[in-house]
C-alpha cells in the first residue's frame, strides 16, 4: 500500500509541474510579447496594403502576398516564445496537453481549428493570395485579406464576403490570375446564324486588339461555336491590369456590338433562343471573367 | 565631340537607359519627403522663386534648336552604305524613335538628302472612307506612284500617322505594309516607339520590318559633348552654368575629365537618354539671376551666371488618374490627336474636360486643333504609365 502511494508521488509532481509556478511566470513579459506581436501584425496589415497602392503595379501583388506570411511567422514566433514561460515543457506534459486539446478541439472547436489549419496550409499552398481574383462557391471577387480563420472577398458589386478557409478542403478554388498581374477576360456574343463568320471573327479580333486596356504580351483569341439557336462568339483577351477587367469587358462588349452591326450580323433574340431548351443564352451578349468561368 | 566620328544607329533592344546617380536618387526621395512633411523645399543654394525666366527669344539664343543634336549626321552615317547597295538584302529599314520628336528627324533627314517623302493621309480619312476595302485605293496611290518613279530612297517618316487605334483604323497600315513588302526599292520608315510596340502586336509590323534601329542613348558623356557644343555659340560664351541647388558649375570637370556636378548624369537619367527630352528639360531649367534692384544678392559677381534649376514636377489630376493615363497613353501612341479622335480611340467614358485639365497641369499642349504630350512632361508620363502597368514602348 505504501509502495503504491510512493509510486503516485512522482505523477503528482509531474502534474503539478505541467504549468510553471505562478511566481516564475512573468505576466508582464507575456503581455509584452503578445502586445509586440499584435502591434507588428497590425502595422503590417495596414502599412503593406497602403504601400501596395503607392508602388509600381509590378510590386503590388508581392507586397499584398507578404501580409499573411509575415503574420504567420510573427504569431508562431510569439507562441513559441510564450509557451515555455507558462508551461513546463517536457515530453509527458506535451502528451497531456495534446490529449486535452484534442478532446476540446474534437467536440467544441472542430470547424474553427479546421479553418485555422486550412489557413496555415493556404499560406504555403497558395490557392489564393491577397490581390488575387478567385471564385469560391459561386462568389467571384478580389481577395482583400487572408485572415487566420477566413479570407474576405470584395465582389464586383462591392459586397464583402467572408469565406472560412476550411472551404479549401471541400470546394474547388478557381483562381483567375494565380499571382499574376493579369487575367483572361471573356466577352460573349450570341449571333443569328446567317452572317459572314470570317468577317465577323476578324472584326471581333480587331475590337480586342484596339482596346485601350489590352495587355500586348498576352494572346487575343476569338472562338466561335455553333449552337441550335445560332453562333456563339467568345472574345478572349487580357487587360494590362486585372483591376480593369470589368471596364475591359464592357469596352469589348460596347465596341463588339458596333462591329457586329457594321458587319450586318444580328444578335439572337431571347424569344428565338427560348424555343431551344437547354441551349438558351441568358442575354444577347454576356460578359464573364476568369480563366475557368462559364456562362451562367 | 566634333572630332569624333559620328556613332551609328543600333539594333532595337540595345538601348541603354542611363541610370540615375545613387546620390541624386536619394536626394530626390528625401526632397519629396521633406516637401511632404514640411510643405516646402529643402534650402537650395539659390531659391527658384528668386530667379527670372528668360524670354523665348533669349532661350533660342542660349539653347538653339534643333533638339536632335548630332542625330542627323548619325542617321546618314548609318544608312550611307546601305543606300549605295544596288541589291541590298533588306529593301526596307525602320527607324524607331522615342515620342515628342518635334524636329521630324526622319523627314528632315529625307529632305536634307533630297529623298522622296510619302506624306501620311489625313487621320480623319482613315475612318470615314466608307468601305475599308476601298480605303487603300484612295490613300495608297501616293506610295504606288512614288514607288514606280526613280531610283531614289522612298521615305515614310511617321508610320504612327497611318493608323488609329480603332477597329477600322488598322486596315490602311496593314495594306501599306503589304505594299511596301513587295517594293524592290530602298525604303526607310520612321515610327514612334510607342506606336511600334502597338503595331508589332496589332498588325504584326515587326514581321514586315524585322530589323528596326534606333540611336545610341544620350548618356552623360554624349550630353556633355552636345551641350558643350551649344555653349560655344556667341550668346552663352563666357557664361557659367551653375546649378541652383548647390551652386556647382555644371560643365566644370575634374582632373580626369569627369564632370564635378552630377547634374548631367541626372539629366541623362531623367530624359531616359532621349536627346530632345534632355534638350527641352535643359531649356526649361535655365534661369537668369535676380536683378540687383529687386534686392537679389549676386552670388558670383565676377562672372556671368546662368542658373539651372531642377526639372519641374507635374501632378496628374488625382480624381481622374486612370482616365488621364489612358488619354496620355493614346496621345503617345498616335503622336498627335484631335479632341474628337481622342474620344474615338478611348473607351466610352465621360471625361469631357480631361484634355483641358491635362493642358492646365502641363502634360499636354495644343497646336491648332491637335493635342500632344509635352516633351518636358514625358519623364513624368512615362514613369506614371510604367507604374500603372501600361504596355510600354520598345527601344
TrEMBL record, chain A:
Any single Gene Ontology cellular-component annotation: membrane
InterPro entries for this protein: LSM_dom_sf, MscS_archaea/bacteria_type, MscS_beta-dom_sf, MscS_channel_2nd
Mechanosensitive ion channel MscS domain span: 111-177
Keywords of this entry: Membrane, Transmembrane, Transmembrane helix
Annotated stretches, region: Disordered: 274-296
Polar residues biased stretches: 280-296
Domain of life of the organism encoding this protein: Bacteria
Gene Ontology MF annotations: mechanosensitive monoatomic ion channel activity
Residue ranges crossing the lipid bilayer per the database entry: 27-48, 60-83, 89-109
Chief site of localization: membrane
Subcellular location(s) per record: Membrane
The name this protein goes by in its record: Mechanosensitive ion channel
Species, as recorded: Roseiconus nitratireducens
UniProtKB/TrEMBL annotation, chain B:
Superkingdom of the source species: Bacteria
Protein name: Uncharacterized protein
Species, as recorded: Roseiconus nitratireducens
Amino acid at each position: 500500500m505504501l509502495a503504491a502511494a510512493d509510486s503516485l508521488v512522482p505523477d503528482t509532481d509531474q502534474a503539478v509541474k505541467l504549468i510553471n509556478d505562478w511566481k516564475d511566470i512573468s505576466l508582464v513579459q507575456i503581455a509584452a510579447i503578445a502586445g509586440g506581436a499584435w502591434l507588428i501584425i497590425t502595422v503590417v496589415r495596414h502599412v503593406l496594403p497602403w504601400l501596395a497602392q503607392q508602388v509600381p503595379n509590378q510590386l503590388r501583388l508581392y507586397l499584398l502576398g507578404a501580409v499573411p506570411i509575415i503574420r504567420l511567422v510573427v504569431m508562431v514566433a510569439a507562441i513559441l516564445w510564450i509557451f515555455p514561460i507558462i508551461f513546463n515543457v517536457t515530453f509527458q506534459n506535451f502528451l497531456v496537453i495534446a490529449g486535452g486539446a484534442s478532446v476540446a478541439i474534437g467536440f467544441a472547436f472542430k470547424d474553427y481549428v479546421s479553418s485555422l489549419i486550412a489557413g496555415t496550409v493556404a499560406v504555403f499552398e497558395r490557392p489564393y493570395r491577397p490581390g488575387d481574383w478567385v471564385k469560391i462557391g459561386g462568389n467571384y471577387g478580389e481577395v482583400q485579406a487572408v485572415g487566420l480563420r477566413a479570407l474576405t472577398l470584395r465582389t464586383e458589386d462591392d459586397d464583402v464576403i467572408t469565406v472560412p478557409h476550411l472551404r479549401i478542403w471541400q470546394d474547388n478554388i478557381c483562381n483567375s490570375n494565380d499571382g499574376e498581374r493579369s487575367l483572361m477576360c471573356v466577352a460573349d456574343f450570341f449571333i443569328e446564324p446567317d452572317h459572314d463568320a470570317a468577317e465577323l471573327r476578324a472584326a471581333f479580333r480587331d475590337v480586342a486588339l484596339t482596346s485601350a486596356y489590352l495587355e500586348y504580351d498576352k494572346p487575343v483569341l476569338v472562338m466561335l461555336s455553333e449552337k441550335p439557336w445560332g453562333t456563339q462568339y467568345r472574345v478572349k483577351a487580357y487587360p494590362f491590369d486585372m483591376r480593369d477587367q470589368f471596364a475591359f469587358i464592357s469596352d469589348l462588349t460596347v465596341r463588339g456590338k458596333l462591329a457586329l452591326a457594321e458587319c450586318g450580323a444580328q444578335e439572337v433574340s431571347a424569344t428565338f433562343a427560348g424555343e431551344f431548351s437547354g441551349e438558351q443564352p441568358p442575354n444577347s451578349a454576356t460578359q464573364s471573367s476568369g480563366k475557368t468561368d462559364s456562362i451562367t | 565631340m566634333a572630332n569624333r566620328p559620328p556613332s551609328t544607329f543600333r539594333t532595337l533592344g540595345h538601348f541603354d537607359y542611363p541610370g540615375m546617380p545613387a546620390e541624386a536618387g536619394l536626394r530626390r526621395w528625401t526632397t519629396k519627403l521633406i516637401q511632404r512633411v514640411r510643405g516646402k523645399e529643402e534650402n537650395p543654394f539659390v531659391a527658384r522663386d528668386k530667379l527670372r525666366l528668360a524670354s523665348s527669344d533669349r532661350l533660342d539664343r542660349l539653347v538653339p534648336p534643333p533638339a536632335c543634336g548630332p542625330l542627323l549626321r548619325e542617321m546618314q552615317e548609318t544608312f550611307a552604305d546601305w543606300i549605295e547597295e544596288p541589291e541590298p538584302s533588306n529593301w526596307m529599314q525602320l527607324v524607331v524613335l522615342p515620342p515628342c520628336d518635334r524636329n521630324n528627324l526622319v523627314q528632315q533627314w529625307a529632305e536634307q538628302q533630297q529623298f522622296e517623302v510619302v506624306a501620311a493621309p489625313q487621320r480623319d480619312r482613315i475612318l470615314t472612307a466608307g468601305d475599308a476595302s476601298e480605303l487603300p485605293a484612295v490613300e495608297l496611290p501616293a506610295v504606288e506612284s512614288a514607288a514606280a518613279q526613280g531610283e531614289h530612297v522612298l521615305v515614310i517618316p511617321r508610320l504612327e500617322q497611318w493608323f488609329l487605334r480603332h477597329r477600322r483604323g488598322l486596315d490602311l497600315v496593314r495594306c501599306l505594309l503589304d505594299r511596301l513588302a513587295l517594293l524592290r526599292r530602298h525604303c526607310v520608315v520612321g515610327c514612334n516607339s510607342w506606336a511600334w510596340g502597338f503595331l508589332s502586336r496589332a498588325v504584326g509590323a515587326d514581321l514586315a520590318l524585322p530589323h528596326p534601329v534606333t540611336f545610341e542613348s544620350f548618356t552623360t558623356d554624349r550630353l556633355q559633348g552636345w551641350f558643350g557644343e551649344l555653349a560655344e555659340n556667341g550668346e552663352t560664351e563666357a557664361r557659367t552654368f551653375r546649378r541652383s541647388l548647390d551652386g556647382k558649375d555644371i560643365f566644370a570637370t575634374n582632373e580626369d575629365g569627369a564632370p564635378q556636378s552630377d547634374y548631367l548624369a541626372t539629366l541623362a537619367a531623367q530624359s531616359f537618354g532621349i536627346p530632345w527630352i534632355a534638350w527641352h528639360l535643359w531649356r526649361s531649367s535655365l534661369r537668369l539671376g535676380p536683378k540687383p534692384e529687386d534686392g537679389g544678392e549676386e552670388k558670383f559677381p565676377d562672372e556671368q551666371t546662368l542658373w539651372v534649376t531642377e526639372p519641374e514636377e507635374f501632378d496628374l489630376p488625382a480624381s481622374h488618374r486612370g482616365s488621364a493615363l489612358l488619354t496620355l497613353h493614346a496621345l503617345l501612341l498616335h503622336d498627335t490627336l484631335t479632341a474628337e479622335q481622342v474620344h474615338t480611340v478611348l473607351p466610352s467614358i465621360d471625361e469631357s474636360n480631361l484634355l483641358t485639365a491635362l493642358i492646365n497641369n502641363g502634360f499636354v499642349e495644343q497646336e491648332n486643333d491637335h493635342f500632344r504630350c509635352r516633351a518636358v512632361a514625358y519623364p513624368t508620363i512615362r514613369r506614371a504609365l510604367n507604374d500603372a502597368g501600361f504596355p510600354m514602348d520598345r527601344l
